[in-house]
Amino acid sequence: DAGITQSPRHKVTETGTPVTLRCHQTENHRYMYWYRQDPGHGLRLIHYSYGVKDTDKGEVSDGYSVSRSKTEDFLLTLESATSSQTSVYFCAIRGGSGPRGETQYFGPGTRLLVL
Amino acid sequence: AQSVSQHNHHVILSEAASLELGCNYSYGGTVNLFWYVQYPGQHLQLLLKYFSGDPLVKGIKGFEAEFIKSKFSFNLRKPSVQWSDTAEYFCAVKSDNYGQNFVFGPGTRLSVLP
After folding, report:
1. How far apart are CA B24 and CA B74, in angstroms?
2. Angle at CA of residue B79, ends B75 and B84, nearest 5°
3. For chain A, which residues lie within 8 Å of any Cβ of chain B, measuring from their own Cβ?
4. Which terminus of chain A has fewer Cβ atoms in its 10 Å neighbourhood, N or C?
5. Cβ-defined contact of A104 to B92 (cutoff 8 Å)
């Protein structure tokens, strides 16, 4: 277990409302990632971070923004939620040096339903 | 386009049957390869990984995978599956040619019948 928590674990919201998901890690990893998981698509990268205030876009970043003001927290924000953003969201970290540094470890996921 | 493909969308086996799940990637350069498993309602867990050296990699729970560079493949195998192996399996690739990110295949759902 890589010490990753996500909150909330479940959320139901309405179209057009802002939503923020939080990923928290306890092991001081530099790299953090946000993915969404949808049937038939596997995991798709939304955004990632390679340090405090250092972030970049992934494959499906439209409609999402992120922030990382502290090493341990990586926030994903849906500025104005749409039904197409109904999904399961996973946070992941990548370790530091050595073999563990090239492996991703995942949080428990957040199930988001946009009505 | 660069991608990771998994040959089977859904595999159904009886207990004690042998398993092989295919994974192919289209990236060049040095690659790190992974198999993850996701049990129903849970998050992804690492099964095994290949970085370098022996192309036959052994993982947890009796799983193994073989890296065949010439075929751009990293197939997952288990000689005898159990009902508890029912899960979704994801292949993932990290390539030096693709920066710091990992790319996942679409997943293969395995159902093992008791």
Report:
1. 6
2. 95
3. 31, 33, 35, 40-45, 48, 50, 58, 90, 94, 99, 102-109
4. N
5. yes
